[in-house]
Design goal:
By secondary structure, the protein is mostly helical. It is 83% helix and 0% strand. Helix 3 runs antiparallel to helix 4. The termini are far apart.
């Protein structure tokens, strides 16, 4: 075969170019669609697990808020511990059911919400134990400490409200 005959063979045609462009277009549209689904879609399994976990966390928060200003009785501790175990297991189930990026974001939000409630309880118990054994403190320091504790509690409750509203926004 001579060079002239080789040059006349058509290796690349308009039809081949169109097929390649259509294939690339389908791949691009598919990737874009997949990214959008990952970013904005909350799967039904995660939605159900999220509602369950959110209900358990809100129950735990209610127990914490109801007793934060009062002295803790002996019946409260087992109730709180049981509610805490239920909330932790519900959050771990929600984390396991996460598929998409949005699912994972919601699971992390639930974990943060639960952590903030648990952290508030630990700080509250620590603060109560420190204030009980304080020894000789001037009345001015006592009033400052009470004022600081009230401000800290109000800010913590605002934070709980923020987590709760964000979680409900995710699920709605």
């Amino acid at each position: 075969m001579k060079v002239r005959e080789l040059l006349q063979i058509e290796l690349w045609s308009k039809i081949t170019s169109r097929k390649i462009c259509i294939g690339i277009g389908i791949v691009i549209v598919g990737l874009f669609s997949w990214c959008e689904v990952e970013k904005y879609w909350l799967t039904p399994g995660e939605r159900d697990a999220g509602w369950t976990a959110l209900a358990q966390i809100e129950e735990l928060e209610k127990l914490q808020i109801d007793t934060s200003d009062k002295s803790i009785d002996l019946d409260w501790v087992p109730k709180y511990d049981a509610a805490q175990r239920r909330a932790r297991s519900a959050v771990s189930i929600a984390e396991l059911r996460a598929w998409t990026v949005r699912d994972r974001q919601f699971a992390v939000m639930l974990s943060r919400y639960l952590w903030s409630i648990e952290d508030f309880r630990i700080a509250d118990l620590l603060g109560n134990s420190l204030s009980d054994g304080a020894g000789k403190i001037s009345p001015e320091q006592v009033t400052n400490a009470k004022r600081f504790k009230q401000k800290e509690r109000s800010e913590q409750f605002q934070l709980f409200g923020y987590w709760r509203s964000e979680a409900h926004k995710f699920l709605d």
